[in-house]
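Async update (no meeting this week)

Hi team, since we skipped the sync, here's where things stand on the single-chain job. The sequence we agreed to prioritize is pasted below, unchanged from the tracker. I ran it this morning and attached the output directly underneath so nobody has to dig for it. Comments welcome in thread, and please keep replies under the output.
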Amino acid sequence: MSNYFKHSLQHPDFYFAKFVKNPKMPYILFIHGGPGFNCGVLEYLIEHNKLFNSFNYNIILYDQRNCGRSKKTSDVMLHQHNITDLQEIVCYLTDVCTIQICALVGHSYGAKLLFDYYKKYSSQIPGVFISTAKSILTPRLNNLMLDLAYLKKNYIAEYNIHLNTLDWVDLDKLWRVSEQLTSLFQTNAERPFFYWANLEFYQISQDIQKQINLPANNEVFVSVRKDLYSDKSYFSVAIDELTISKLWINGFHDFIMNGHETAMSSNSKIIPFYKSSHYPHIEENHYFSEILNEFIKHH
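Output:
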């Protein structure tokens, strides 16, 4: 049974899930990945599967704009919207709800979003970055290699068409090829095995996703990703340059995000989780809780 009690937190635009262990404890705000995803699986795991039971903090999750159960608009979503929204959410929680936030935790795209939030706003709340690379070009190129390998195995004629066009690649061409292969990102049944090392939690998460029926918003996925890769100023995720207290965690098996300098890091600021891939906060959640408890206690 979860040590947390879930409470409602009303907002006109955003869906929040608030988990309280002790009203006197400060809160961790989680920022989910994507773009276009939601906090549904993580919410279910906390409520029903005892995830993060050993945290010494309360938890708040939210669905990004046009995702999950947050308000749907006709706006074309851009990365900048999510940055501005995060600032609005932090101010709402701290100023309106008088909630003490002791850490902001971003996963995958959420880590990139958190990085750009810190670059734009003067927040000194400690930041935790999970499953990210030093540049967004790293996952883009690694995903392209996975898509081409999938075509090579299953659709050889289409693979040869793309192969014959790859005499050179610049950023514009990288984006065009990525756009053409977007459907493979969600239909390639082999892709999850690059994202999960702990197959038990992979299966649990798959079952939860079917049960809660909160699909990703593909329009947001495409529009935000296009915005990110169309602006070179967004490419960097130079976490070391941030002046805030920070923690960076990557799964050892995360082929999408890792180079050798991350998977076998000599940078003491990057903590590899050796039994995890892209979801170390889920795959090794007890260890993650220990690390986060210790980090927040000293910052």
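Quick observations from my side:
The radius of gyration is 19 Å.
The beta strands are 5-7, 16-20, 27-31, 58-62, 101-107, 127-130, 246-251, 270-273.
Reply here if anything looks off.
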